[in-house]
Design a protein that fits this description.
This protein has about 120 residues and is an alpha+beta fold. It has one domain. About 30% of the residues lie in helices and about 25% in strands. The protein contains three helices and five strands; from the N terminus they run αβββββαα. A five-stranded antiparallel β-sheet has the order 1-2-3-4-5, covered by helices on one side. Strand 1 and strand 2 form a beta hairpin. Helix 1 crosses helix 2. The radius of gyration is 15 Å and the shape is globular. The chain starts with a helix and ends with a helix. The C terminus is likely disordered.
């Protein structure tokens, strides 16, 4: 049974990262998914974060923390975490895209969650 679960995890995670990539308007050529435990994903972003004009930006995802935004160090071997999406490990791809847009505008917090279904429709 375990291989079937691993296959489902792999396909599910790849599909999720693909949807996030599409919401961000990226091609997905610079993404990586490792479904083996601990599951992780890497997604290179276009652009630079305020305060880091000469460093590449990426989204990193893992099954325990969810999404974080990071900038590469000058050596290119390490990353500096700049922002964490929040407590939701698998937020909707559209929420991730809004969060990333905010990061590029200099906002570091995750978008506020609606407190009720009626607020979500507003």
């Amino acid at each position: 049974m375990e291989p079937e679960f691993d296959d489902a995890l792999t396909w599910g995670l790849r599909g999720y990262v693909r949807r996030v990539t599409e919401e961000l308007g990226l091609t997905g050529d610079c993404s990586y998914v490792q479904a083996e435990r601990p599951a992780v994903a890497y997604l290179a972003l276009d652009g630079r974060l305020p305060g880091f004009p000469d460093r590449d930006v990426a989204l990193l995802w893992d099954e325990e923390r969810g999404w974080v935004a990071a900038v590469e160090t000058h050596s290119g071997e390490d990353v500096l975490v700049q922002a964490h999406f929040g407590p939701d490990v698998v937020p909707p791809p559209s929420a991730v895209a809004r969060w990333v847009d905010g990061l590029f505008r200099g906002e570091r917090a995750a978008p506020a969650r609606p407190s009720s279904p009626r607020d979500a429709r507003a």
